[in-house]
Amino acid sequence: xxxxxxxxxxxxxxxxxxxxxxxxxxxxxxxxxxxxxxxxxxxxxxxxxxxxxxxxxxxxxxxxxxxxxxxxxxxxxxxxxxxxxxxxxxxxxxxxxxxxxxxxxxxxxxxxxxxxxxxxxxxxxxxxxxxxxxxxxxxxxxxxxxxxxxxxxxxxxxxxxxxxxxxxxxxxxxxxxxxxxxxxxxxxxxxxxxxxxxxxxxxxxxxxxxxxxxxxxxxxxxxxxxxxxxxxxxxxxxxxxxxxxxxxxxxxxxxxxxxxxxxxxxxxxxxxxxxxxxxxx
Length: 281
Fold this sequence. Notes:
By secondary structure, the chain is α/β, with parallel strands linked by helices. The protein has ten helices and ten strands.
């Protein structure tokens, strides 16, 4: 199974015993929609609701921190997802939240996972089958693998300012990145981590919500000034859309990547962290 699958592929493989479809929709705080309620009104047949919003470590000081290993294991087990299941993720979110779920699964070693290209919007627009109601799958034991070393902390990012070992790419829009506008999502001034490059996550998609072809993704990465021979750390507002950039980098074969989990919600709040305005120098 490829990391990105089409609606045609899912329709052809739907119902296979080891294939699990998960709705990974999560919205920004100001979006007045309830993903679970929307799921119960209509979803891809057989899909299960991941409740991505609950997959966060509330004990962490990092805003919206990635979940602990046992959190993921408990949640997937409750959804009837086996350790060796093939998982297809989709969402109905402007921030393409399925990519965040992909990163979480990748973090804990579940590599048999794909994102549905175009998500719920494409599936629904094509008039494909849907069903409604809640889903109560049979619970299983899910064993999450050890965490991969693909998450960076604020301490790591501060050290990287001196070493320059990893290039930083910011997935937010240009105005928030340059400081031309405030970050209304996190109620913070705009700006970015010094030396970061800007690659707006929405530029990675075509008008129909599907990912751009591989050559166009490569060109977008090149245009952002990302070098081909140095590892990459992705940042954004809170770690959500940075995951979209990481997924796109994965699609073009760049897996020398990591996520700054705290992102601007952490960096921008700290009066002692250096900030930069304007375009990347």
